Amino acid sequence: MKKINFVIVGYGGMGSYHANTLMPTEKEKINVYGAYDVLPERQAAAKEAGLKTYASYADVLADTDVEAVLIATPNDSHKDLAIAALKAGKHVLCEKPVMMNVVEFDEVLEVAKETGQTFMVHQNRRWDPDFLMIRKIYQDRPIGEIFQLESRVQGANGIPGDWRHLKEHGGGMLLDWGVHLLDQILWLVDSPVKDFFVDFSQILGDPVDDGFISYLTFENGVRALVEVGTTNFTKLPRWYVKGIEGTAKIDDWDCQGEMIRATRAENVSAPTPIQAGVGLTKTMAPPSEEAMEKIDLPTATAEYQPFYANLYEVIREEATPIVKNSEVRQVLALIDEMFARVAGK
Amino acid sequence: MKKINFVIVGYGGMGSYHANTLMPTEKEKINVYGAYDVLPERQAAAKEAGLKTYASYADVLADTDVEAVLIATPNDSHKDLAIAALKAGKHVLCEKPVMMNVVEFDEVLEVAKETGQTFMVHQNRRWDPDFLMIRKIYQDRPIGEIFQLESRVQGANGIPGDWRHLKEHGGGMLLDWGVHLLDQILWLVDSPVKDFFVDFSQILGDPVDDGFISYLTFENGVRALVEVGTTNFTKLPRWYVKGIEGTAKIDDWDCQGEMIRATRAENVSAPTPIQAGVGLTKTMAPPSEEAMEKIDLPTATAEYQPFYANLYEVIREEATPIVKNSEVRQVLALIDEMFARVAGK
What we know:
Two copies of one chain form a homodimer.
Chain A: E1 4-9, H1 13-22, E2 30-36, H2 40-48, E3 52-53, H3 57-62, E4 68-71, H4 78-87, E5 91-94, H5 102-115, E6 119-121, H6 129-140, E7 146-154, H7 174-189, E8 193-201, E9 211-218, E10 223-229, E11 239-243, E12 246-250, E13 257-262, E14 274-276, E15 279-281, E16 292-295, H8 307-317, H9 325-342
Parallel strand pairs in A: 1-2, 1-4, 2-3, 4-5, 5-6, 7-10
Antiparallel strand pairs in A: 7-11, 8-9, 9-10, 11-12, 12-13, 13-16, 14-15
């Protein structure tokens, strides 16, 4: 087993997280070999962490000991960095959003095809424990067939960092958390998007979106509400999922929540009307006790390999990637359409 | 002070609720005089309750002691009943949805104009305590200017009753709870609807909607998500409201919830990144403690009259109605458009 020598390109928050936390989970396979950043202080940090550093990106690509690069730079720089690396015979792992748009992505895929190098995107949130639970509920149907998924990520800190405020760098929340949430949903539902609605939030005065609400209708009939917010001082649940026989919610990253299903017991008594505001309602009254039961949320682990283990096999053994470029392209195409729809194109 | 003699037309759940609960709150002004229903068992119930009953609707209208009728029958019968009553010189209070569509409503309004009788709609949920709290937050701005309102009513009992399952009677949830929630929002925001999105749920196999999700964009920039569900075994909060300076939620009819706002304190430390799934996030990390404060949800009462007190003054003293027909018409026009949009018209 020959380790893959990786150079981290862009040694910021994400790049150093790969180097220090993610790559070491597969240290038999992945070797954090070096790093490159345009900022001197980050070069210094990389050197201090014991990584080989380079004077230029060209030097990285000229280093024959380097087999692969991780691109963790601002979004608008991904394309050129990726193409140069592929042409230099390096494999490329790219942070999300993979590119600024599908046109860019297709260029890169074309080069990858020509060179035969691996190009893969770090859609790591397919391994999020909360997502795995929802995926299990979707697949095993403890609350019947799922017809509606609501996926929300809400914070109160506004848009982070510097370049994420800028359009030309691919800033904004749709291209940040949005990419993750849409990737999860599209991968899970695995049906073409028939139609969508989207509304961007620009409350904070940035030229980019500080959040969005989208609603997708899939050809198989499933609906998904996908929302990212950065002006939410109290939150709605991370997941809210409706099946024919019940409903599940997961409150937060801690994966707490609840799942309630209809018992379909015989002789269930009708719900008792309740006072709701100034009126009575039977429709919105809680079902009678014997009509519902609380069931445990599933425990779930990925039945697929960890990301870096898979990447290793993709590079070394031509294994099938878990994160396929065709899937990544679908998400990006949807995002392109969302921007175009709002721009009135 | 001469009481207004009312006859309840349609002595079902809603009609009897008016007779037994709502009208008696103004017993100096409103007299529950009689009732009429096409079903013999309901006629019997009305008689047993001490109400005068009638052999036919014509008999109600011929009774010169009757000054006003409450129409609480299936939705498709409102128009003919209302027009006949107005022409017979009776005032009309009508349950919601006022009519099947705007064309019908305009016909009725025309007759009311000709006859000079009062026609008013029972949009009683403008007096709901939870709505009054949201209204106060909207107006007093303890969390800054409100730019997003989310109003949800979710049950797990499906569509209630019999005729509400049928299209020809004006069944479905948009014409049921939807009318209330849209009336509240349109009245509160008080700005033209610039655009909307709507998706109906027909999960239960009924020919009508068993719920819907709508998203309204107002000309003043406010957004509102309005949702009714009848297949929700666990619920999202009744209200979720975002202001520039904070967020409020009200969980349920009991008006519990929370309101959090930014302190805008100086020297607030940056939020500490948290582990979220398999990744780190600073964007979605809780703001530092000194950056937010919990404030009390407001107590709120209507600064306007109770419904029946207002109706009395409208009839007796030409007071301004709190529920204006022009407002009711806006809601109905929006609903018409929602149905048309989905039907692809």
